[in-house]
Amino acid sequence: MTRSLARELGRDWIRVNAVAPTAVLPEGPEE
Q1: pTM, whole model, 2 decimals?
Q2: 1-31: buried (b, 16+ CB within 10 Å) or exposed (e) per residue?
């Protein structure tokens, strides 16, 4: 998906970045 989007938008000098979807736990006080 990222490659096809980058190819499509790259013509207009728009950069596409992707981050692997994972669960990120927020930092905070532990109970």
Answers
A1: 0.44
A2: eeeeeeeeeeeeeeeeeeeeeeeeeeeeeee
